[in-house]
Design brief:
It is a single chain. The protein is globular and about 85 Å long. The protein is built from 16 helices and two strands. Strands 1-2 form a two-stranded antiparallel sheet. It is mainly alpha-helical. The protein has one domain: Amino acid/polyamine transporter I, CATH 1.20.1740. InterPro entries: AA_transpt_TM.
Length: 503
Amino acid sequence: MGPEGWVGVGGAGEVAQDGFGPVGLVYMFNLIVGTGALTMPKAFATAGWLVSLVLLVFLGFMSFVTTTFVIEAMAAANAQLRWKRMENLKEEEDDDSSTASDSDVLIRDNYERAEKRPILSVQRRGSPNPFEITDRVEMGQMASMFFNKVGVNLFYFCIIVYLYGDLAIYAAAVPFSLMQVTCSATGNDSCGVEADTKYNDTDRCWGPLRRVDAYRIYLAIFTLLLGPFTFFDVQKTKYLQILTSLMRWIAFAVMIVLALVRIGHGQGEGHPPLADFSGVRNLFGVCVYSFMCQHSLPSLITPVSSKRHLTRLVFLDYVLILAFYGLLSFTAIFCFRGDSLMDMYTLNFARCDVVGLAAVRFFLGLFPVFTISTNFPIIAVTLRNNWKTLFHREGGTYPWVVDRVVFPTITLVPPVLVAFCTHDLESLVGITGAYAGTGIQYVIPAFLVYHCRRDTQLAFGCGVSNKHRSPFRHTFWVGFVLLWAFSCFIFVTANIVLSETKL
């Protein structure tokens, strides 16, 4: 996913636009493409260019399918909310015209009637189409509308695991980038990572300090500076979003141009294999993570005024994103040797032999630090709020210590501990994408659309069709997505077990 695009499962992202034209395309492009794309070049080089291309296209298609599922579920949720509002109005009208003694009976009768009959009157008295997406219904709310209690708890568990993975990736990426840029400098020459130089964590950084010590110092500073935000409420401002997006696109454009120039001058060192199936596990997780947007769709699509060609434009966005990922990854794997590609692709440009201008070297090397640091508090607050929602009791409130200390602490400590133990970003992204990412991108949308279709038919009857229904409307597609998700889970788990056994 584009981590910068995270708006949360009850999130605070604001998108304001007049129609899903060019502006909408840019917002969705921005939502999906984020820092996760920086780990893709190494995954491409490890798995081979043909296997990577085929898997990237297929996973892009599967992500598009489940995106249309979420849009359909959003429309169905809006229709149900509209229907319930109509029923509440009718109950109030009936209450006004009845005696106090009969009010309970009437409310119960109205509720039973609403549960049993198709509500076609919504079309006549409400908006032209009951399935118009006007209310922002987040995935957590959709889960509570269409799932039973067990399903809702599993949904929040999946979201929480994914957010923990996100935070661990962020907590490792910033100190790792700082360590690479500052520890790789030799003497007075601040050239960053030198050509053909391989560093180990035990190598010296500054005097007696090893590289791993520098990494942990940076991690401690990162935690002390950004960790306290977890204990308060944070909102993503529009200007901060614009700034981080601008920096991201400048960095991506500079890297692609520099790689193309090197290849054009015959300086390309990369000779990627056609296929290497040992690298497919991480590639799969990285690709799933890089297509992650389903959780943020309500915040993106609801404010759009014209949704007539929504599916077509979403498809166009996916085509553009596929082209961008392909361009970024192919220029990378043919420009740099596979064994020299860094977990964070920007760090490959912190070399003197690649970039002569020191300002550009430091901008690209430190780029993840700026963009990730602005998003870490937002995701931490989102995770904290999801913990609160998971344990929330109807009508109950948390003691001050639990609310202000316990929840923020259990949010912050685990990802920092993971980052303390490892800075292997490719594996962190791969595992997060392969497990929690599979749940959010495939399993949850498939179950949402299945249950929303069933509930819609019960409430509205067969005469009303969802105007935002997915083009993949046959039940076969729901089964296919779930089968694919299950197969991926088994494949990744077996691959991890076999890899550990060999070690």
